[in-house]
Amino acid sequence: MNKKLLVMVVGMLMMLLVVACGDNNNGGNELNNNGANDVETNEDNGAEEEVEIDEEAAGDAEFTIRAGIGLNSEHPQYKGLEKFKELVEEETDGAIYVETYHSGQLGDDRSMMEALQLGSQEVTVPSTAPIANFINEFSIFDFPFLFPNSEVADEVLDGEVGQKFLDMLDDQNLKGLAYWENGFRDLTNSEQEVASVEDFEGLTIRTMENDLHLDAFRAMGANPTPMAFTELFTALQQGTVDGQENPFATIYLEGFYEVQDYVSDTHHIYSPFVFMMSKPFYDSLPEDYQTVVDEAALEAGEYQRELNREANDQYLENLIEEGMTFTEITDEAREEMREAIEPVLEEYAQQIDQDLVDEVYQAIEDAE
Ligand code: KDG
Predict the structure, then answer these.
(1) pTM score, two decimals?
(2) In whole numbers, what is the pLDDT of the chain averaged over residues?
(3) 71: exposed, middle or buried (Cβ count in 10 Å: 0-12, 13-18, 19+)
């Protein structure tokens, strides 16, 4: 290669490099655009680059908390996060600044938990199902038909048993501060009405990334496939899967009714959220600020649970108005589903820790 050509090639390479770096600023989307509805979900929701703190908005704050979730800004989960922000900033007179991110802008549940472990993100609020990939015991909360109603779930989760599980997060470099609520999960699909366990036969259903969820759906005859939430809408739209399961709030607010025709109130799993913080970050806070975040996580959680419950029936009505066919599941049909799943639960109970499972069952009985 002659000298002139070499100079040209090097020049072009440098230009390409500058363009690429420009694109990468803020991880490829408007990550610092707090709460904006129009922010696109990251295409790659694996481990993210560290998100740059918005220095201007953070002002003189001593600490910044980057708090991210998978659901969108309309969801009660995000309203809860905004409440947390309000409480923390008020209580610390702005010494802690909270940046909130929705719609998987910082990644999916698993990658955000990993970012917390590394200290490149401070807060996330995943469902318990993906937490089981870090701590097997968390699968217990995802046993189908475990909690009879949300009041009993509150009592167990907010009590000694719930705390025992939060404490397990310490070993993973995570600090569990509170339980929030995702809610009772219901089935949608684009193929047929699902009224009984037989109707699951052959349906390809997206589940969260959790072995117990997969085995439970297999036991009911479905063909489950694990997937991060951030990929779900497209998978439903493109027909990669026939259906999915989530609470009515998510089905409505994420617009799944646009790509799904049938909804059944299977209520097969009560899905808790865990509000967690990066442990290295939590440990770096002065004690009085630790108390502020502890209390704010709980108070914002109460608010979030209330919002979630208040609108649940309305979301179902909205889904019907949007044209979805609603199938009510009878007690007998639900019992048949439970029976089909029972052997899976027995296997998991033994494999996880039968004594711990019995402790959870006992706490539920006591709460009832
Ligand atoms: O922010 C939480 C979501 O990322 C996720 O946990 C929602 O239930 C959920 C799912 O189906 O992935």
Answers:
(1) 0.87
(2) 89
(3) buried
